[in-house]
Design brief:
Elements (H helix, E strand, L loop, with lengths): L3 H4 L7 E11 L2 E10 L5 H13 L4 E17 L3 H13 L5 H7 L4 E10 L2 E9 L6 H18 L4 E4 L13 H5 L2 E10 L1 H8 L3 H19 L9 H11 L7 H4 L3 E7 L2 E11 L11 H9 L10 H25 L4 H10 L2
Parallel strand pairs: 1-3
Antiparallel strand pairs: 1-2, 3-5, 3-6, 3-7, 4-5, 7-9, 8-9
Length: about 350
Amino acid sequence: MSSNKEQTLMASVPMQIIGPAKWVFNGQTEDVYFPLATYESPLWPSTNRGARVSQQTSGIHCTVTDERMTRSILVEAQTAEACHAACRGIMDRREELEPLVEETSRFARLIDLHAQQVGSMLFLRLEFHTGDAAGHNMVTKASQRIQEWILQEYRELRYLSVSGNFCTDKKVSAVNGILGRGKYVVSELTIPEKTCRRYLKATPAEIVEINTKKNLVGTMLAGGLRSANAHVANTLLAFYLATGQDAANIVEGSQGITFAEVRGSDLYFSLTLPNVIVGTVGNGKDLDFVRKNLEQLGCMEMREPGENSRRLAAVCTAAALCSELSLLAALTNPGELMKAHLKLERA
């Protein structure tokens, strides 16, 4: 039988480099380009329009407010009372867990843990810093080591799973937005009214109105969970594929909130993504096109651990803001969205 490596084929996805956008990160203003791999070709000119708008402003300001990768382990006792007692003991001995994590990785660091009990089952959500890696395998390995220690120290507990879904990995949930998983990034842009009218064919008030009624009210009506945006998943998927990320993480990654308001006569526009899960090292990063894109983004530099991945998350969020802005502007004009799709996808 052939090896897995010999069986591996390459799937081609069309890719374009979009931009430049004016981008501000860590106090530095620069031009950035967005590599986007997608079959949805209207995404390219739409994102490019948002990038052109940014050039007429002070730039897209991006702030990474938090970062952590998680795994939840699941154990069980015979009774709820025994489970609760073990949980209290584990939480009181948190300092003993940190050296266990350091045994498993040079970069993994335990930063927090949270517990939830259901019946006699104990769900422990472990949160780590993972350097420049997205960290899926890193946190699983560290969590497995902690779980082994717990089962040795608390004989009344038994193993159920190394992943108990309280993480939560690649599923829509509230916990990731509340406690964090990946990079929590806010991007914001202030656009003069004249620029709005010229490049977006809409007024600031019109964009605020459609964001409120479509993204906020429409999502609430649909029962959306910690999410209020037009199409963040489109841009995240395209960016993830172009930069060698685990594309399934767009499930939690697209739980973003688009916000808009009129300030004076200008449009203030922001996108908050609480769960941007990206890395600049690890599986997929050795592909030639991925390395080229990461280098072009300035995310392969010699920096302190974590700095390259934070930069990548900030660029990703800026790209998503550009496409959010452009789509909402298009939706203010009847027929514009369908006309663009027919022109670009049916030609």
